[in-house]
Write a structure and sequence with these properties.
Elements lengths: L9 H18 L4 E3 L8 H20 L9 H12 L3 H28 L8 H23 L4 H13 L7 H9 L6 H29 L15 H9 L8 E3 H26 L29 H9 L9 H14 L4 H4 L12 H20 L7 H31 L2
Antiparallel strand pairs: 1-2
């Protein structure tokens, strides 16, 4: 173990800092990270930063928010935005963070798919991450309702009504969720409780689980190479840092994360300062009105692809009604990526660009999701309806049929 003495020169000072770091690595059971990774592996810490921003700004906003159907709209658009000092800033930060966090979530998830980070013992990392995505979706939806504007109200009306499709108990479930026969004050109170109390606690718990699962069997790398972390860590601690394939989480990896966070926060501050309106629907600046339905109801951009799948099936197929088919497809879409370790039947752990058929499949999936997102905000009429239908079918076929076939062939080809 390194012996630490009084430094007699600048060189000795740096040598002792290295010795202290190595000693800390041994005593603290340091977590090691593959050296062969890039900025895409910083998405997790950026997500943690954004969640912290959401949590802090949410606490500031909830001090003045009124979870009452008669007071909620004014408490947001007048009290917070005009009367509370810097209230407009906290609201803009909260709204932009709520939107951008889904952009980073999608990047994080598809980086995992591209590099096969859901395979070879990493299944729990993937499943816990997708569970976080679902909980964040519930958190976002409950928060979208709180301003009690027109789009908030009618989006809640549409989404809660979906539970009516559950056989036998559907209508009872809808009434239980709403607390009334229609979306009203009890509904707002329920969603306020979910948004500020229950769901944040659940998110924190699952984040802890997700971080812990990263230790078993460590994160993936750019080449999908299997690394003996104990052996490579010994190399690093012995001073052979050049040939070691790993770096310590601190300071080697986390110092880079701080740099990426700094760059990201510059981008985030720019959005908050100059382009905050992209995270706020203009229709939602009108107070909720149960007797006035908006011309076209749609969710936030990060839910548009699922919404398009919901309404993509606009005609009956045999005994099944279009609404039931759409609801089933929508329910599956929400949990579909959970099962990536089951769809991918290949034993190959490598980035997509080293798996030709998988590479083509990956980009077809991305293109299909972009089409679903774009058309999810357009009226489902004429040509738009047919594009939505084929894109919805395409999403299901790509996951349930195409991916298993190409990965089974890949597995056979490697035997």
């Amino acid at each position: 173990m390194a012996h630490i003495t009084k430094a007699t020169s600048v060189y000795d000072w740096f040598e002792q800092r290295i010795a202290i770091t190595k000693l800390w690595n041994v005593l603290a059971g340091q977590y090691w990270i593959p050296k062969n990774i890039n900025f895409l592996w910083a998405m997790g810490v950026i997500l943690t930063t954004l969640f912290t921003v959401l949590f802090v700004t949410g606490l500031l906003l909830v001090m003045y928010y009124k979870p009452d159907a008669n007071l909620a709209f004014d408490s947001v658009n007048y009290t917070i935005m005009k009367e509370v000092e810097y209230g407009w800033l906290w609201r803009h930060m909260h709204a932009v963070a709520a939107s951008v966090i889904f952009l980073i979530l999608y990047i994080h998830a598809f980086v995992g798919i591209y590099y096969g980070s859901y395979k070879k013992g990493r299944e729990m990392i993937w499943v816990s991450g997708m569970l976080l995505f679902l909980i964040f979706s519930a958190e976002a939806f409950s928060g979208y309702m709180l301003p009690w504007g027109q789009m908030s109200y009618w989006a809640a009306q549409v989404i809660t009504q979906l539970f009516g499709g559950i056989p036998v108990i559907g209508e009872a479930v809808v009434e239980w969720i709403r607390g009334d026969y229609a979306v009203s004050d009890p509904t707002l109170t329920r969603f306020f409780m979910l948004h500020v109390c229950l769901l944040p606690i659940v998110i924190i718990m699952v984040v802890v689980i997700h971080f812990y699962t990263l230790r078993v069997p460590h994160v993936n790398n750019l080449e999908g190479e299997e690394i003996d972390f104990e052996l490579e860590a010994e190399k690093y601690l012995s001073g052979d840092t050049k040939n070691s394939k790993v770096i310590p989480f601190w300071p080697g990896f986390l110092s880079k994360d701080f740099m990426y966070i700094s760059f990201f926060m510059i981008f985030f501050t720019y959005l908050v300062s100059f382009h905050f309106s992209f995270a706020m629907d203009p229709i939602n600046f009108d107070p909720a009105n149960a007797s006035k339905t908006p011309t076209h109801i749609y969710p936030e951009w990060y839910f548009l692809w699922q919404y398009e799948i919901l309404r993509g099936f606009f005609f009956d197929i045999g005994p099944m009604k279009a609404a039931d088919i759409g609801l089933l497809a929508f329910a599956f879409a929400g949990i579909s990526l959970f099962f990536m370790p089951l769809y991918d039947r290949s034993d190959v752990v490598a980035p997509a660009h080293k798996r030709k058929a998988f590479f083509v499949w990956f980009w077809l999936l991305i293109i299909d999701l972009i089409i679903l997102t774009v058309y999810g905000k357009l009226p489902p009429t004429g040509f738009n309806a047919w594009v939505g239908f084929y894109a919805s079918v395409g999403y299901l076929v790509l996951l349930l049929v195409v991916l298993p076939i190409i990965t089974i062939r890949e597995r056979k080809g490697n035997k």
